[in-house]
Amino acid sequence: MDALTALHQRVSITKLTAPAPDKKQLNLLFMAALRAADHGNMRPWRFLVIEGSSRERLGEIFARVGKEKKPDISDAELDRFKSMPLRAPMVIVCIARCRENPKVPQIEQVLSAGAATQNLINAAFVLGFGAVWRTGDMAYDIRIRGALGLGENEVLVGFVYIGTPSVPIHLPREQNTEEFFSYWASE
Ligand SMILES: Cc1cc2nc3c(=O)[nH]c(=O)nc-3n(C[C@H](O)[C@H](O)[C@H](O)COP(=O)(O)O)c2cc1C
User: Fold this and answer.
1) pLDDT per residue over 99-135, tens digit each?
2) pLDDT tens figures, 121-175
3) Ligand 1 atom having least distance to the Cα of 157
């Protein structure tokens, strides 16, 4: 698939099954992520790959936090938390690792980590994998941040779920570019 076709046709895919990308394919995704625009060449990101039984462990942590937030949580809600990371064979936690830099404010570093995340998803699509970028309450919870080892200077940008699409992929709706793009000209 050529680059523009991939960029034009990428869609999020939520119904994902095994296999996840293998080591070689994963490295291609990582290389794409690392080519994100990056003010000051700060490399303001890191990524955690969660697969196999580590997803179950993460689901248990989600459930524990869910119960702490809402002590009368139902069994069904607890099960939903437990199964969240099992929605794909692989979850990649994308993290902005921000550092003080007088020329590069934190927001720019978070934007770079977001761009790296999008590059990762685009590359997955090129290789025929499906992916979806999710956050939700758990992404911002201090207990989840602690369990994943995030430092105070780090922002959890998203959980990227990756796997093989288990449903047919539909082309995205056509966009009206004029709605969002216009020319500005000074008088
Ligand atoms: C930072 C960020 C967080 C997101 N979090 C969620 C989420 O928690 N749940 C969800 O269903 N979609 C979430 N999305 C949106 C999906 O990733 C996806 O973009 C959306 O469903 C539109 O689908 P499309 O990518 O095929 O256009 C998030 C997107 C971004 C950029």
Assistant:
1) 999 999 999 999 999 999 999 999 999 999 999 999 9
2) 999 999 999 999 999 999 999 999 999 999 999 999 999 999 999 999 999 999 9
3) 1
pLDDT value, residue 187: 81
Looking at the DSSP assignment, which residues form a beta bridge with residue 161? 91, 132
- Which residue has the least CA distance to atom 5 on ligand 1? 134
Q: Which two tokens stand for residue 27?
A: 């490295």
Structure tokens at 142: 């201090």
* Closest protein CA for atom 22 of ligand 1: 12
Half-sphere exposure at residue 42, Cβ-oriented, CA atoms within 13 angstroms: 23
The rounded distance, in Å, linking the Cα atoms of 163 and 145 is 24
Return the residue matching tokens 């793009």. 181
The pick from 80, 134, 137 for probing ligand 1's pocket by mutation, whose C-beta has the most ligand atoms within 8 angstroms, reads 134
- DSSP 8-state class, residue 179: G
Placement of tokens 């009206």 in the chain: 176
Cα dist from 19 to 23, 53, 74, 142, whole Å: 12, 15, 32, 32
pLDDT for position 1:
84
Q: How far is the CA of 33 from the centre of ligand 1 (A)?
A: 18
